[in-house]
Amino acid sequence: MPATVFKKPNGLTDKKLHYCPGCGHGIVHRLIAECVDEMGDTNDTVICAPVGCAVFVPSYFTYDSIQCAHGRAPATATGIKRVHPDKTVITYQGDGDLASIGMAEIIHAAARGEKFTTVFINNGIYGMTGGQMAPTTLPGMKATTAQSGRDPKLNGNPIRICELLSSLTGPAYIERVAVDSPAHVIKAKAAIKKALQYQKEGLGFTLIEVVSNCPTNWGMTAVKSMDFVRSDMIPYYPLGVYKDVKEGK
Amino acid sequence: MAKVLMKGNEAVGKAAIQAGCTFFAGYPITPQNEVPEYLSREMPLAGGTFIQSESEVAAINMLYGAGGAGARCMTSSSSPGIALKQEGIGYCVFGEVPCVINSVARGGPALGTIQPSQQDYLQATRGGANGDYHIPVLAPATIQEAVNFVKEAFEIADLYRTPVMVLQDGLIGQMMEPVDFDVPVKKREIPSKSKWALGYGKQGDTHFIEAIVMDAPMCEKKNHRFFTEKYAVIEKEEVRYEEYMMDDAEYAFVAYGSTSRICKTAIKVLRGKGIKIGLIRPQTLWPFPQVPFQNKNIKLFIDVEMNMGQMVPDVALAVNDKNKVKFFGRCGGMIPSPDEVVEAAEKYIGGAK
Amino acid sequence: MAKFNVTFNEALCKACGLCMTACPKSLIKLNMSVTNDSGYTPAMMTDMEACVGCQSCARMCPDCVITIEKND
């Protein structure tokens, strides 16, 4: 009698994902669903969608959901979690949403220690709108609004969100992970689960930054884009735990 | 119940708690700072949540979440702060999230002045968010009315699933008057929020607050539904106005908020001179009253506001004769005196009769 | 009999190739003789007997195309 050892988790709908072939969004959606389901919270989760490729997150999860104004998901999640402290509340945000227009909201929600979890997808580019420069675009990386490549003299340098937020007291757990390889995907799942666990224990704000890809707007195949994550993105955005209130970090 | 002498801004806070508001988010801005200050103390005592948000933008987005999650919620601000909230108000409109926005107007544009004005009439009634929409706007003239309107705003917001604005000027926010907090407010039959609010969904019936409808025919349909099922009904059921000394009137002031009280003083003076003048006082600025402007006995409607004439087009449209509509106003924080109003009226009417 | 049974929901596959690169034994390739409704040539297993059930392919797939069963 065969036993299933890997299948699509509960918590994901049957809707076919609209993301480009090989896009990391699909991997992270699945990891979130796996973690939430393993924790028994599929019926008690509210997910806040960003503006960006993931604006359609509500079609992909069987959770209550809300489409937030660009960058404002941390404020909206604050409202939801304060009204329903017993529910698991997740914001899912890209690099434009979180690190550009939403910078004030993420910093202040983190500083207040709001007890929701942010899953931050950092692929160094604006996907939905066709490849413009993001606050996390690497120096030299080409974008439609930095066509010769990002020049720090003109465009400043990229922002490292985990490092920035870990200077605050409100966050309970901050880790940067990646989804470029099976080994990293396993670690990413563990990190997401830990963040959700810390939320459940009411320890404070939690954020998992996922270094991910954008094959279409990077102008690469999916496989090459994961190579680029490994060779260029991760060295600039080092993986690891930046805040862990239980370890006194 | 005994009346309490209270400052307008604080009375608004107390009214909100009385109405069952359990979530307030706001940012300091003159002349409404007493609202968040009062609620920072009283809301936790009432078991609710108070957050001084990082900005007015964050506050309205917190309401989008808290209101979306089924709580009665309110924010408060003034003119440039209300400008910041426009996008968030639009999201509450489209997502059908009930919430109350208390607006205490100061001189404008930009930082303008800190003194009172009515320069946000168009901001309130036409709105600065994108798209076709309306929000009910209630305009109190006394602190008692502010208290009643705040309580009723929560009822209207929940019944129609819409943001509702209570628009005051800085005078009402800052002055003190006796208030009876036990004046009953029309309670509506509101269906349970557990039918749509976040946190109450279940597998097979999850709840979704949406901001985008990619299918254009469906988006148009949603727009149509708002206009036929919400706005047409609100226009019929929720419009409110006061007619003061209009029974025998040949002329009418049109004014709301603090300006209406100045006009009432001017009416006393003008009546003393034999001029039969009354006051039409809109209490809802949207929906704007139509009925009182059909009065064929009125030769001139004199719109008096603390702005450059923002309500004039609405009056002219209701009267259906712009030649009958005149305007007098002060703005930038200047408050018209009764004498100025009398003088302006006499100029239009052509002297005492 | 193969130790593991790896099935591909061909309709969902976008032929991104991440599963192919992930497999430590290079057991997956694109089936060039099939085109799904989205226009992609879906991934397929070439040698089920050789599969050790590491789940690397399924972990990398963004579209939940892959289901893995253990036979015994």
List keywords for this structure.
heterotrimer; A: 249 residues; alpha/beta; Rossmann fold; 10 helices; 38% helix; B: 353 residues; 2 domains; seven-stranded mixed sheet; five-stranded mixed sheet; 12 helices; 19% strand
What is the radius of gyration of chain A?
A: 17 Å
Largest interface: A-B, 30 and 40 residues
Strand proportion of chain A, as a percent range, falls in: 15-25%
Overall mean pLDDT of chain A stands at 97
- The tally of domains of chain A stands at 1
What does this structure look like?
The complex is a heterotrimer of chains A (249), B (353) and C (72). Chain A is of the alpha/beta class and 249 residues long. Chain A has one domain (24-244): Rossmann fold (3-Layer(aba) Sandwich). Helices cover 38% and strands 18% of the residues of chain A. In chain A, strands 3-2-4-5-7-6-8 form a seven-stranded mixed sheet, sandwiched between helices. In chain A, helix 1 (24-38) packs across helix 8 and helix 4 (95-101) packs across helix 5 (103-112). The longest helix of chain A is centred in the last third of the chain and has 19 residues, at 182-200. Chain B is α/β, with parallel strands linked by helices and 353 residues long. Chain B has two domains: 4-237, 3-Layer(aba) Sandwich (Rossmann fold); 243-349, Rossmann fold (3-Layer(aba) Sandwich). Chain B is built from twelve helices and 15 strands. In chain B, helix 7 (143-160) links the parallel strand 6 (137-138) and strand 7. Chain B starts with a strand and ends with a helix. By secondary structure, chain C is α+β, with helices and mostly antiparallel strands. Chain C has a two-stranded antiparallel sheet. Chains in contact: A-B, A-C. The interface between A and B is medium-sized, with 30 and 40 residues.
Helix/strand layout:
The complex is a heterotrimer of chains A (about 250), B (about 350) and C (about 70).
Chain A: E1 3-6, H1 24-38, E2 45-49, H2 57-60, E3 64-67, H3 73-83, E4 88-94, H4 95-101, H5 103-112, E5 117-122, H6 152-155, H7 161-165, E6 171-178, H8 182-200, E7 205-211, H9 215-218, H10 222-236, E8 240-244
Chain B: E1 4-7, H1 8-18, E2 23-26, H2 34-45, E3 49-52, H3 56-68, E4 73-77, H4 79-84, H5 86-94, E5 99-105, H6 121-126, E6 137-138, H7 143-160, E7 163-169, H8 170-174, E8 176-179, E9 208-209, H9 216-237, E10 241-244, E11 251-254, H10 257-272, E12 277-282, E13 284-286, E14 300-305, H11 312-319, E15 325-329, H12 338-349
Parallel strand pairs in B: 2-3, 2-4, 4-5, 5-7, 6-7, 11-12, 11-14, 14-15
Antiparallel strand pairs in B: 1-8, 6-13, 10-12
Helix pairs in contact in B: 1-2, 1-7, 3-5, 10-12
Chain C: E1 4-8, H1 18-22, E2 28-30, E3 43-45, H2 56-60, E4 66-70
Antiparallel strand pairs in C: 1-4, 2-3
